[in-house]
Write a structure and sequence with these properties.
Helix content of chain B: 55-70%
Structural class of chain A: alpha+beta
Strand order of the largest sheet of chain B: 1-2
Number of strands of chain B: 4
Radius of gyration of chain B: 25 Å
Number of domains of chain A: 2
Largest sheet of chain B: 2 strands, antiparallel
Shape of chain A: elongated
Low-confidence stretches of chain B: none
CATH class of the largest domain in chain A: Mainly Beta
Mean pLDDT of chain A: 88
Oligomer: heterodimer
CATH architecture of the largest domain in chain A: 3-layer Sandwich
Chain lengths: 169, 444
């Protein structure tokens, strides 16, 4: 009888200890694991779109009706890395529509295209994609027209907006 | 966890690999004399090792081992990434507490005579683990490439040069060249994250397996050893889990409230820095004072080498079966003498730097240092190579000014120097001003 009581007590004590060990281990793992998990997830979940306006020089230097490639350098924060990057855009200036700015890459696979003055179209050398001066696809594999970038003219200077969704501030 | 209930997966696994037997032999071990709070230190070491692996891997995802990028990547992690600072703090505090826990674990094993036959291999692998953890500290301290880490490593690697014959070569191999630089950083990084972790896993595995094979030593009293034999699981594991949990709370608390990420990039030309190794290498640093000139290598090589040799030899010096400390007085006195000497050398090293001594012994100085950091004093003033240069260097201000002067000046600089550029500190209470002045007064 006495041993039975002892055994029952001993086995419920044992059950408690097993549960306590499981609970404490989980808590301990969470205490260290949560900050680590947070550190990995936070940059990944950050949806901040960061926009920068890059100067591309005086608007008066751009002729009407003839696409021009403009280049500029800009500072860009890439994580901890503060770097200087070269930006390029194609600009079309017209009397009626004002300034249209295209991203410099073909929408097919990202090759750099050029202006074919003879055929009056943008042409990609990689797979023969072609675009009209308005950016619409006129031939070849590109899935859609050229990327248009937001632009404005401030005090005679062309400024183009670049958007990145990097975690950097 | 309980080996006696296994479901389908357990049965399937067990038919192919005797998992149940492994678990039983690892967990259902009997401890002579029963579970005790005194036995938690080995498990704490294992838990802290896991903490260091997890936080270390997380930090490595962001860290770059190059002089022009290391501190930038750490600063980015601590200031721009959520929880980055906390994880860096956990890695830092856990590393330091780890050394303390290992020392307690070693001292206890020594006191209990738990290194005796058949547990010699457990002791030997334990000594290796102690050395590996010191290796982690030595290689990890330089990684942020900040002033403290750079200069401590400059001193630490210069010591290697004192070794007879091969000293210079040894130092060049470790540094990856004659000078501390980019190659030193990538060398130390590779050792810290590849070589040492592999070695520590190997030796920790060996330590655990050899300990389990021989079984825990338990109490040295033969009568109580026979009286009670509680199992390792769950009785001892429960005590271990409670102890680990309390220590983790302490570590996370310290990381949250008492951790300043490295902030000042290494400047090899700075002469105001007083280079000092980390606290767990200070006894070696102090030892050099007693072996000047041509005998330097005795202090830097022979004595540390002998210390390691003695540690490794312990189970072979004390071979009787008697474990009771009172019947092993020779060993106990010898061990205590070595331990106290190391402790005394550490205290002497701290005491030899008045500022470090004041910081270690006077809470008001620590409060002042905290307030100094919180109030952006360091953006203008430099203390031992850390801080801005637009205000005067305060590294040794305590030699020049008395406490009252400093107190008046911190509150209202214009009252003592009408052309002072420093703004008055109106937002601080009298007590806070006094703490800052006391901290500044301790810098000498």
């Amino acid at each position: 009888m006495h041993t039975n009581v002892n055994q029952a007590w001993e086995s419920s004590r044992r059950r408690f200890l097993v549960w306590a060990v499981g609970g404490l281990s989980t808590l301990g793992a969470a205490l260290v694991g949560m900050p680590v998990l947070g550190m990995l997830l936070a940059p990944a979940l950050q949806q901040r779109h960061k926009e920068t306006w890059v100067d591309f020089g005086p608007v008066d230097a751009i002729p009407f009706g003839v696409p021009r490639m403009l280049t500029a350098t800009a500072r860009q924060r890439d994580g901890w890395y503060d770097q200087t990057v070269r930006r390029a855009v194609w600009v079309v200036r017209s009397e009626q529509a004002g300034l249209t700015v295209f991203g410099p890459r073909c929408t097919h696979l990202g090759c750099a295209y050029r202006w074919d003055a003879g055929r009056n179209q943008f042409a990609c050398p990689c797979h023969g994609g072609t675009y009209a001066i308005t950016g619409e696809v006129t031939g070849g594999p590109p899935p859609h027209g050229l990327h248009k970038l937001a632009a404005k003219i401030e005090q005679g200077t062309v400024r183009v907006r670049f958007v990145s969704n990097g975690a950097a501030s | 966890m309980t080996p006696e209930h296994d479901g389908h997966l357990g049965a399937w696994l067990n038919a192919r690999l005797p998992v149940r037997q492994f678990l039983v032999s690892f967990l259902a071990e009997r401890i002579p004399g029963g579970a005790r709070w005194a036995y938690v230190f080995g498990s704490i070491c294992l838990a802290l090792l896991a903490v260091q692996f997890v936080t270390g891997a997380a930090i490595a995802l962001f860290y770059v081992p190059a002089p022009n990028a290391a501190l930038a990547s750490i600063s980015y992690l601590s200031s721009q990434v959520a929880f980055g600072r906390l994880v860096l703090g956990i890695h830092h505090w856990s590393a330091n507490i780890f050394v303390g826990v290992i020392l307690v674990h070693v001292a206890q094993t020594f006191l209990y005579g738990a290194y005796k036959r058949p547990r010699e291999l457990v002791w030997l692998s334990g000594v290796m683990l102690l050395l590996l953890i010191q290796g982690f500290h030595f290689t990890g301290f330089v990684l942020p490439w900040d002033q403290k880490g750079y200069w401590a490593t400059e001193v630490g690697t210069s010591i290697m040069q004192t070794a007879p014959l091969v000293g210079d070569l040894l130092m060049r191999v470790v540094r990856g060249g004659a000078d501390l630089g980019a190659l030193t950083l990538s060398h130390f990084y590779a050792v810290h994250v590849l070589v040492l972790p592999a070695a520590v896993v190997l030796f920790a595995g060996f330590h655990l397996v050899s300990m389990r094979w021989a079984g825990p030593a338990g109490t040295w009293r033969k009568s109580s050893a026979a009286a009670e034999e509680k199992g390792f699981f769950p009785h001892q594991v429960f005590k271990d889990a409670v102890a680990v949990m309390l220590l983790l709370l302490l570590i996370v608390g310290l990381a949250a409230f008492d951790y300043a990420p490295p902030a000042y990039v290494a400047d090899p030309t700075d002469t105001s820095v007083v280079p000092r190794p980390e606290w767990n290498f200070l006894f070696l640093f102090q030892l050099q004072h007693y072996f000047p000139g041509s005998l330097e290598w005795v202090g830097t090589m022979v004595v540390p080498g002998m210390l390691v040799g003695i540690l490794l030899a312990v189970p072979f010096l004390d071979r009787g079966s008697e474990r009771h400390p009172r019947r092993r007085l020779g060993m106990i006195i010898g061990g205590a003498a070595i331990g106290l000497t190391v402790a005394a050398l550490t205290v002497l090293a701290v005491a030899s730097d008045p500022a470090a001594w004041a910081y270690a012994t006077r809470p008001v100085v620590r409060t002042g240092a905290r307030l100094y950091a919180d109030n952006a004093c360091a953006s203008c003033h430099r203390v031992r190579g850390e801080g801005g240069l637009s205000g005067p260097d305060l590294s040794f201000i305590g030699q020049k000014r008395d406490l009252d002067w400093l107190r008046t000046y911190v509150r209202d600089p214009d009252s003592l120097n009408p052309s002072a550029a420093m703004p008055p500190q109106k937002g601080l209470s009298d007590r806070e001003i006094r703490a800052i002045a006391t901290y500044l007064h301790s810098l000498r």
